[in-house]
Amino acid sequence: MDCCNRRCGLIAGAVFGALVAILGGALIPIGNSIIQGTVEEEAVIEPGTTAHDNWVAAGAEVYRQFWFFDVKNPIEVVEHGATPVVMEKGPYTYRTRYLARSDIVFNPNMTASFELPSGAIFEPSMSVGPEEDRVTALNLAVAGAYSMVGPAFHFALEIMMKRSKSSLFQRRTVKEMLWGYLDPMLNGTVGLFPNYNSTPDGPYNVYTGKDDISKVGIIDNWRGESKLSFWNDTYCDMLNGTDASFFPPFLDKSKPLYFFSSDICRSVSASYDFSYDLKGIEVYRYGLLPSTMASPVDNPDNHCFCRDPVTTKNCTLAGVLDLTACQDGKTIYISLPHFLHGSQSLRDAVLGLNPIQEHHDTYMDVEPNTGFTLRFAKRIQVNMMYGPSAIVTALKKVKDYTIFPIVWMNETATLDDQTANIIKEELVSRIHMLELAQQVLMGVGAAIFVLCLISYCVVRRGGAEQQQTKFA
């Protein structure tokens, strides 16, 4: 009778252990459902949610760092046709995006419209020198005028250059080059970003995700239009994805992320590279594919981005994007810094360039459950073009069309410790607790089950041996 009780107890223990293990396994879908429900609730853009609070506020500090390409042999280039030699000078750092989104309006169709105010505050402690530092760079007015007029008007350009004593290169302060100066040839303000502090980006209209969380943050229209009008092509004029500040939650590594950048006037995609720990939070690193800036020969999807067959060598040139159509007629070419992923001919035309993937590529680090971008580095190089002329004195020695680098920019931000702690407390710690509970229950249950099962077998064998001895 005692042996029977022990067997029954062990069987009951094994059943209990199995039930505990099953409970631990059952917590996996239940826990995932709880996490998914919480994230979806907090990821909607509406007052009172985590997504809304982060979306409205200026958030993490965003910096724009500028490195200029200082020309070391301007006289030799103009007088003897020498290959330009440049040396990188920087960074000159500005704090930007410190102003919260403005003119926010929630619309009946589950969208929200807003403006992104722009501003720049110089940060001396993060710069190699003051804004008054001078650089020798391509003359923006001369290069711009050359790109806009044909050879038939080169005589007028020559007259204007002589009257204003302008040449192919000029020496200007960092502040003048970035934010503008009065140019003697055009008698107007010229600069790389002359209207940056007074012109907001937008308006944007994005989905709030209230009716469909998979659409949260996705751009419905920009400046009142649901598609772009720069490229005269259905594919290239598509407005895809978000503004890259965040994405719909629950990322799938196998699928790219799409976002629109007004800086380059187009939508692009980024693919998953790897995962790593950022201040105790697992993030997915997404980067641009080399095919993003490939020539149409290698990536036919880019055919509509090829605007000028002369400067792009019949659309075989990789690594540059002609933004003339979206820059009010100014001929600006955008590339990755140092022509990363660009044709070798771009680097051969200007000496001193050294593209390095780690330093010059664009990336985003995204928390996979919420879709929040916690760290990013957007790296863009601004270039202009000049070429030969039989009339313009400063261009008579030039042998071929040259896409010339002026400055490259690194716009970057990372989450601060306070925000990291909030994310860890509100999300990461809960996920870890659920995972721990699942593992403990499954482990303890399995251990009880196995131990009771082994003990049952031992007891049963012992009982059998006693019976054999009794009847021997």
Structural class of the helices, strands and pairings?
A: alpha+beta
Low-confidence stretches: none
Distance between the termini: 21 Å
Overall outline: elongated
Work out the helicity level. Answer: 25-40%
Helix and strand sequence: HHEHEEEEEHHEHEEEEEEEEEHHEEEH
Number of domains: 2
Estimated share of beta-strand residues:
25-35%
Return Rg in Å.
31 Å
Mean pLDDT: 86
State the helix count.
9
Biggest β-sheet: count, sense, barrel? Answer: 11 strands, antiparallel
Task: Please explain how this structure is put together.
The structure is a single chain. The strands form four sheets. Strands 1, 2, 5, 12, 13, 14, 15, 16, 17, 18 and 19 form an eleven-stranded antiparallel β-sheet that branches. The chain has helices spanning 2-43, 50-56, 74-80, 140-148, 154-164, 174-179, 344-348, 357-360, 417-470, and strands spanning 62-71, 86-96, 102-107, 111-116, 120-122, 134-138, 169-173, 181-183, 188-190, 201-207, 219-222, 257-261, 266-278, 281-288, 320-322, 333-335, 363-366, 373-386, 402-414. It starts with a helix and ends with a helix. It has two domains: 2-40 and 439-470, no CATH class; 61-98 and 119-199 and 227-415, no CATH class. The protein is of the alpha+beta class.
